[in-house]
Write a structure and sequence with these properties.
PSTPO5379-like fold, alpha+beta, 7-stranded antiparallel beta sheet, PSTPO5379-like, 11 strands
Length: 263
């Protein structure tokens, strides 16, 4: 289905999810449902669920938990009770023992009665707030850093971040102020400035969500880096028998406004 940017932004979360469920939208979810919070998704067997929840609690900047499903229930009751984690993302990644084995658009065949779904805040949620404040920025993509997360049980690994380039110090400072209220969707940046300081070699080569035709950083642009809730690197480190995540740029749109989750 072809939609304009305005049509996509004006959709309700329910209508957008149903469009995804029917296979009518297969692209990025950024830009959908103006003002509504989006969530990264990680699904694990119950035997791993407590350790993962502890891992998220110890690393709230990259992994802020906004909902956890009941065992075997694919419906996130707190933030989108009508949503179905098996069908409402445009792309999934299925890991077995830490190895990526499939990237389906529907995980009904993988669903089991012992699975627990975690919804983690996504930084795309606060982009609407930045735009409403008339801040000038561009999203670069996601990067693997040399910052190590605090381990919990079998879960450990490097932090992923998303980078945005802001025009000038004023807009960068305002972005920090605005996102500091949004702890449920990563809060303020974890790093500002030199990408090499956190192990990023080149902003033109994102590890996930790379944008085509990326223009190099300009002298008047300031780089801000927020924690990222993508857990594919954690899957490779923990090696659970089954772990399902969202795709690189395909997350779940919730029924909660980002402002509702702000502090």
């Amino acid at each position: 289905m072809n939609l304009s940017e305005d049509e996509l932004a004006d959709m309700t979360p329910r209508d957008f999810r149903h469009m995804v469920r029917r296979g009518e939208w297969t692209g990025r979810t950024g830009g959908a449902c103006r003002g509504y919070a989006q969530a990264n998704v990680t699904i694990l067997p119950k035997d791993y669920a407590y350790e993962f929840l502890l891992f998220c609690t110890r690393n709230p900047r990259p992994y802020p938990v906004i909902d956890v499903t009941e065992i075997g229930d694919p419906h996130p009751k707190l933030v989108a009770p009508e949503a179905d984690l098996r069908t409402d993302l445009t792309r999934y990644k299925v890991f077995q023992n830490g190895e990526l084995v499939a990237e389906p658009t529907d995980i009904s065949d993988y669903w089991r009665d012992d699975l627990v779904g975690f919804l983690l805040g996504c930084s795309a949620s606060f982009d609407w707030l930045l735009m409403a404040a008339n801040l000038k920025f561009r999203l670069v993509g996601g990067f693997i850093t040399n910052i190590q997360c605090v381990p919990a049980g079998r879960f450990r690994g490097p932090m992923l971040v998303t980078c945005r380039l802001f025009k000038g110090a004023h807009d960068a400072a305002r972005a920090i102020q605005i996102t500091s209220r949004c702890l449920a969707v990563h809060g303020p940046p974890v790093h500002i400035g030199d990408p090499a300081a956190i192990g990023i070699k080149d902003l033109s080569h994102a590890d996930l969500g790379a944008l085509p035709n990326f223009a190099p950083q300009q002298p008047d642009e300031i780089a801000l880096y927020w924690g990222c809730g993508a857990t594919r690197m954690i899957a490779k480190e923990a090696k659970p028998p089954l772990m399902i995540t969202q795709g690189d740029v395909e997350v779940l749109v919730t029924d909660r406004l980002t402002e509702e989750l702000a502090n």
